[in-house]
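Troubleshooting log. The previous structure file for this entry was overwritten by mistake, so regenerating from the original sequence record. Sequence copied from the archived sheet and checked twice against the printout by T.R.
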Amino acid sequence: MKYIRPGFYFMSNNNQVVFKLNKLLDKKMALEFLDIKRGGIDFSRGIIGVHPELKQVKFLTNRVKKMQAISKYFDYFYRKHHIYLNKRVKEFQRDWNDIEKKFFIEATKIFKGLNLKNSRYTGYLSIIDCNPRFLHDKSFQVFYFHPQGVKFVATHEILHFLFFNYALKYFPELFRKKNTESGIFWDLSEIFNAVMHQTKIFISLHGRVGVVAYPAHKKFLTQARKYWQKNRDIDKWILATYKYLKEA
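Regenerated output below.
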């Protein structure tokens, strides 16, 4: 998925995660997610629920007209609220900077063998509540009123990047031909994140957020947690949980 990167952001030379605005990406994701249901979630609710003005757009059958209507609304919204949206980007960066160093220290312990010192990621503020991530350039979106906050969303998405990278590097025979957007590889990554978010170290990073998982994955969490608690070893967890999912 290709899109234009704007040059406007706030960072220091040492930031591994940088937050920006990207209106064009926001428009494209609104168009894509209006018709997406996955893991028991209807993503259109994260668009229309936030912006009821877009309700009728969902029923347009012509994709070009859908995009025109979305584009017109987003142009208006970004123009009207540009001061506040820029303020939120600064707040996202400030909040994330509080935990960035600790996060990467802990991530290095979990994903043994991965050198994360030079890893760079981009977080884009979004006015819709869909929060996708893009593996090809290690970027992700964060809803600007996300109930769990930017610390949770950023740790969640970066864990995805690290998990897929690690699994493909050390278990290519299992995952090289697997889809990262659906199927068992995607299931495994989401379940891994749900397990990690309930550990003491991640609760200390982003706060207690309850069980955050797709409805379709919740039935697997108890066993997946047991596998992690047994060894706290990423290799053993991947193999055990992958086998469990295949046999379920």
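The first strand starts at residue 9 and ends at 10. Archived copy saved in two places this time.
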